[in-house]
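seq as requested:
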Amino acid sequence: MWASYHFLADIPFVAPIASKEAGEIDLLWWFLSAVSLVMTLLIFVGVIGFAFKYRKRPGVDPVPVHGSNVLEITWSIIPFLVMLVMFWWGAQLFYASQNPPKEAEEVFVVGKQWMWKVQYPDGNREINALHVPIGKAVKLTMASEDVIHSFSIPALRVRHDVVPGHYDAIWFRATVPGHYRIFCTEYCGDRHSQMIGFVDVLDQASYNSWASGGTGGSLADQGKELFTQNGCSTCHLINEQGRCPILKGIYNKPVELTDGRTVIADDAYLRESILQPNAKIVKGFDANVMPNFQGQLSEENVIQLIAYIKSLSPTAAPTPTGSQPAAGPAKKPKAVIKEAAAPAAAVAQPPQQ
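struct tokens:
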């Protein structure tokens, strides 16, 4: 049985530092550990010392000890200032981790019992493997097809829960070439311990050589093919108004709904509109025109369709990093949908009068 876990022998006590962020996070961790150690020692030394000094002794009457304002102010203000340093330092790192650079390359990761499925913008796909170029920012947009997972690369000091019905994201900039482990750090079933993978950090030439081996078109091309296969193009016309909203130029733009609200057509909104088209109806359009694709499209299919819709808005700004509520988990596709409708009936602006 233990032969299945031979990889544990290769895991160091302290993970290697393979990104700029990893060194900054480690520095904060050591600071917190040092402060905790010093405070613990002071408390225990004080408890033991005072217990010995003021112990009960024969023939010695206890004398009341009055407080010291200076001492009480000192032991209140100094820990408060130390805690403010912790908060300021941690808040800076957290803010940086939640805001990827605009030039970050977006890679899509789907968690499923018990594997990580990776899709790149150029159409490449992998299972339990991730290839990234050294020195470049990479943003991982993640979703789950079944239960809660947690994507973790210890060497890069990145980790984030992957929750069904949400798009979650993390980013990093690897600085040291190497072969590092990917773990799921949230119990997700009886084979949770086997949900591992690897990330290869490559120099630019090696990365370009690896990426050139992809086939099947870009992620947007694959989404366009799905868009046509599922009959979406019969209602969502590109340059003229059809039965459903126009998708061209809609990504990250405000959309007015029939209930008077205005929402932004980001990734989460597009996903919800694909899987549950009646959840939010665009003003000027009717409900029950588009079929429900919940359970008909996998998370990978949804990501491909969103990539195609994004390609129709080439100047749109990227969606911010972080948890984004969306529709419930998608499932593995059962068959090609033949209804003449589209996976985004609530995703654009109303027809012009």
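The radius of gyration is 27 Å.
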